[in-house]
Amino acid sequence: MSVKYYEKVWHNGKFIPWSEATVHVASHVVSYASCLFEGIRCYETPQGPAIFRLKEHTDRLVNSSKIYRMDLQFTREQLSQAMVELVRVNNIKNCYIRPVVFRGYGEVGVNPLKNPVEIYLLAWAWGKYLGDEALRQGVDVCISSWQRIAPNTLPAMAKAAANYMNAQLIKMEALTNGYVEGISLDIAGHVSEGSGENIFVVRDGKIITPPLSASVLPGITRDSVITLALEMGYPVMEQSIAREMLYIADEVFFTGTAAEITPIRSVDRILVGKGQPGPITLSLQERFLSIVQGQTNDKYGWLTFCNQPVGARS
Ligand code: PMP
């Protein structure tokens, strides 16, 4: 594994070594993609490691499991506490936490209901997802020839592994053609999202993002950015975005746990604005980073400090 991973892994309530966190190839998940996951960042702050929006990530995992009828056997509180423990036992300063829930080894065949539900919590060190310079300089992206999963095919609101077969096609096509990321359109041809990020457009001082009905994942960074933008006095709208709007927007940016707030400097080789990160994007990025890194008062209670009891807020 090329990233630095943390040795202790949480599995169904117990810590096990990273090397033992394995599955049998006959497990249901291997043939049928019956897997849900999350991606959460734990930031280094002056008050020690802090997990960003732990409650919302846990809620989304529980929602994904509800959609797919998976019984988690652990409460939200137990799962949240386990993630705090994961940070503590591994002595982590900052990391990316990956909860994984899947149908394990039991019966063969499509019917998932007889297979045990396994839960793992892993952690590794992850830098800037779209490249070291991405946050400062912006990235070059394309519109994918692959569309986003259509409504009522695979549920976009669940963070399910199967959705990422679609995401992989988008990502591979983009990389093959020399772009950092691809943006998919929804079934109606409107802008949906990146392969692992939500998208925002700035035009005439207004901030616009596609609605959840455009087959987007309800991103937690998306929600955070909407909250911060409103607080900073910008009008924010959730509305359908035409593909060509990306070409004539003043600013375009991605949001995501891994990508944080990444400016987009060109789409299909057409420069966005002046081809460099715009002022609204940068002001949101600065505000976001100062909150997650514990440099600004966390007035929304978004950080869970791992060296304090769960639920304790700054
Ligand atoms: N869309 C997709 C498809 C994603 O994989 C992600 C990353 N989880 C996002 C959007 C952004 O969501 P979040 O801000 O919760 O990480």
Structural class: alpha+beta
Shape, please?
globular
> Could you give a short account of the major beta sheet?
9 strands, mixed
Poorly predicted regions:
none
Helix content: 25-40%
Keywords:
314 residues; alpha+beta; 9-stranded mixed β-sheet; 8-stranded antiparallel β-sheet; binds 4'-deoxy-4'-aminopyridoxal-5'-phosphate
Describe the structure.
With 314 residues, the chain is an alpha+beta fold. Helices cover 26% and strands 27% of the residues. The protein contains 8 helices and 17 strands. Strands 8, 9, 10, 11, 12, 13, 14, 15 and 16 form a 9-stranded mixed β-sheet that branches. Strands 1, 2, 3, 4, 5, 6, 7 and 17 form an 8-stranded antiparallel β-sheet that branches. The longest helix has 14 residues. 43% of the residues are buried. 4'-deoxy-4'-aminopyridoxal-5'-phosphate binds next to helix 6 and strand 14.
Write the layout of secondary structure elements.
Elements: E1 8-11, E2 14-17, H1 28-32, E3 35-37, E4 40-45, E5 48-52, H2 54-67, H3 76-89, E6 95-103, E7 117-124, H4 134-137, E8 139-143, H5 163-176, E9 181-185, E10 191-194, E11 198-203, E12 206-209, H6 220-231, E13 236-238, H7 245-248, E14 251-256, E15 260-267, E16 270-271, H8 279-292, E17 303-305
Parallel strand pairs: 8-9, 8-15, 12-13
Antiparallel strand pairs: 1-2, 1-7, 3-6, 4-5, 4-6, 5-17, 6-7, 9-10, 11-12, 11-14, 14-15, 15-16
The structure holds 4'-deoxy-4'-aminopyridoxal-5'-phosphate (PMP).
